[in-house]
Amino acid sequence: MSNLASTQPNRGWAFWCKPLLFLLVAAIGLYYVKWSPYYLKVFVAADSHSIGASILNDQQSSPWSAALAYSQVYFLAIWKAAVLAVILGSLLQVLIPRDWLLRLFGRAGFGSTLRGGLFALPGMMCSCCAAPVAAGLRRQKVSVGAALAFWIANPVLNPATLVFMGFVLGWGFSALRLVAGIVLVLGVSLVAQRVAGPEQLPEAAVDAVVEASTVNDQPFLSRWGKTLWQLFWSTIPIYVLAVLVLGAA
User: Does a structural domain hold residue 4?
Assistant: First the structure.
């Protein structure tokens, strides 16, 4: 790894602009679709000890109608977060240096898994919206454990959910969810990593670090458009189908 690092070219302002642009898009997008709405809802939960009625539509006689009704309500509630997730999942692949991701999340061990879970906390997404970002991480060859920890931790360790649960059900339930969530995120991710492969940096990840040291002459918009299109068609159709099936169930 040290030899690889020594072969990397000098990185000037043009290089640092890309990660900064990703952070800017992420901060603005998350503030608009997550942080600000959740902040306002905290006061409602604190005052009324409720976060509103369920969006489930109990049309037991017609599963197809139930699926369509649930999907309509669900997509209207989360479409902004879903769009942001696809954008972030694609930008992650073209703006963040791959060697950065591999150094943080590439090794198949506890450290990468823990960092993957911590990386999820600012997002506060549901599992559906976190999926495109997790897919983007895996496309960059990060470890299975880190990507899975990111995906599970988004809904399970969502700080807003813990606060809402505290105001509605009591802080004992929040503490129980937090402890159980940490065990779930780390336990499942580490088991999945152990099943997926040995605890060492995979050869694919090493090749990716070498690739990161080379200059990509393809225009940014062309690379981003291609990545965005691939990520959209590999996640959104399955996403829509899953919501329809859940609505019917």
Answer: no
Q: Which domain holds residue 140?
A: 21-248
pTM strictly above 0.90: no
Of 201 and 45, the one with more pLDDT: 45
Q: End-to-end CA distance of the chain, in Å?
A: 50
Q: Shortest CA distance to 152 belongs to which of 112, 191, 185? A: 185
Q: Measured between alpha carbons, how far is residue 70 from residues 67, 125, 246 in Å?
A: 5, 19, 8
Q: What is the pLDDT of residues 111-141, one digit of tens each?
A: 999 999 999 999 999 888 898 999 999 988 8
Query: Does residue 226 lie within any of the structural domains?
Result: yes
Q: How many domains does the chain have?
A: 1
For residue 34, which of 131, 121, 97 has the smallest C-alpha distance? 121
Q: How far is CA 205 from CA 155, 176, 217, 235, in A?
A: 28, 37, 22, 23
- Are the CB atoms for 239 and 140 separated by under 8 Å? no
Angle between helix axes 220-248 and 63-95 (nearest 10 degrees) is 160
